[in-house]
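input
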Amino acid sequence: MAKFYESINDDLQKFILKQHIFFVASAPLSADGHVNLSPKGQDCFRILSPNRVAYLDLTGSGNETSAHLLENGRITFMFCAFEGPPNILRLYGEGHTVLPDTPEWDELSPLFTLIIGARQIIVADIHMVQTSCGYAVPVYDYKSERDQLRKWSEHKGEEGLQQYWQEKNLCSIDKLPSALGERETSI
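output
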């Protein structure tokens, strides 16, 4: 059954680091707004301290997490054991978006393997950690990471990615500005 922790201990960190996929959830404050839930892979998650995590956010069709964090900061991460003993781990926190060309980017980006298409880093301060049984999560075999995003980003090139971000990533589907959109309006 569910257990709660104030931080990420050594055993929980080991579990997190073994996972090939994690999920990020965020939501706007509006009751009419859309909850976002995104799967992430590509070895982009880092544990910065027992109560602070970050992930390298790659180009996507939207930018919901950044917009929700700018509005209210709420974020949840979920890790599931798809192999080995069953387990689900959730990290509840408050986050923010770190954009390139900022001092925080310069501090955090060396922790990641930067690939073309990396648009921002999401950082979260974790105030609660929960584990639960995961008995109903199916068992899957990990084969490999996909390379389609890398190929797509390389084909677009730096200028094409910038244009794509302008067209698709400045606001959420509910028209909330993302950190990229905020930067554009402040320039």
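quick obs: The chain has five helices and eight strands.
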